[in-house]
Amino acid sequence: DTGVSQNPRHKITKRGQNVTFRCDPISEHNRLYWYRQTLGQGPEFLTYFQNEAQLEKSRLLSDRFSAERPKGSFSTLEIQRTEQGDSAMYLCASSLIAGGDTQYFGPGTRLTVL
Amino acid sequence: AQSVTQLDSHVSVSEGTPVLLRCNYSSSYSPSLFWYVQHPNKGLQLLLKYTSAATLVKGINGFEAEFKKSETSFHLTKPSAHMSDAAEYFCVVSVSGGYNKLIFGAGTRLAVHP
User: Most buried among A60, A63, A73, B39, by the most CB within 10 A?
Assistant: First the structure.
């Protein structure tokens, strides 16, 4: 069990550029979640996958955001035409259906939009 | 709708003294409640979890929390603070009825002084 990993750990980009983040969940975890955490706040839910199916998207996830989990393993989160307000820590978590609620978090990707 | 309120944004204690971090929750259902800790530049780590089995829940590193339904509270305590406990602590409720989206409180920053 190597834990949830996220890449890159840090990303600095200019406004208007596209960025993509990757999350590798704990092996065999069938649920995968994305959250966003802004400075001084708790994480907020963005979206959720069960296997390869994206089952819910938060209203925080504008049409500039897209997430995929093509084979039910790793997931990517893409932000198009980044804005300064997108600057945040993007967290990924995974869990087992049989494991109930417990979600295990990765270290996050910190995005800075200049 | 589920929500959590962390009553203190900052708590400061001396090493060796007790820690109390306060959390109130709101839930239409019998909730699952968690405390997570976030150290600087590290991922969220699960401290403990309540799922209706026992009202007093013991977690890692000497932390425990008591579920009080009559007070809708889930306060986190530790008898004796250690310098390494300095971190951000989040009280979390799980949205029931499906995929267990987590709702985080705003966080309490714990400072431990020598």
Answer: A73
B19-74 pLDDT, tens per residue? 999 999 988 777 889 999 999 878 899 999 998 778 899 999 999 999 998 999 99
Cβ contact A101–B43 (<8 Å): no
Do B100 and A103 count as a contact with CB atoms less than 8 A apart? yes
- The pLDDT assigned to A5 comes to 95
pLDDT of residue B32: 87
Phi, psi of B84, deg, nearest 5: -70, -5
* Cβ-defined contact of B107 to A40 (cutoff 8 Å): yes
Residues of B in contact with A33 (CB under 8 A): 101-102
Interchain CB contacts (distance < 8 Å): A and B: 60
A100 chain-B contacts, CB cut-off 8 A: 32, 51, 100
The CB-based long-range contact list for B13-17 (8 Å cut-off, 24+ gap) reads B13/B81, B13/B110, B13/B111, B13/B112, B13/B113, B14/B81, B14/B112, B14/B113, B14/B114, B15/B81, B15/B82, B15/B83, B15/B112, B15/B113, B15/B114, B16/B80, B16/B81, B17/B80, B17/B81
Chain segment B89-103, per-residue pLDDT in tens: 999 998 766 667 899
Instruction: Kindly tell me if the per-residue pLDDT of A100 is higher than 90.
Output: no
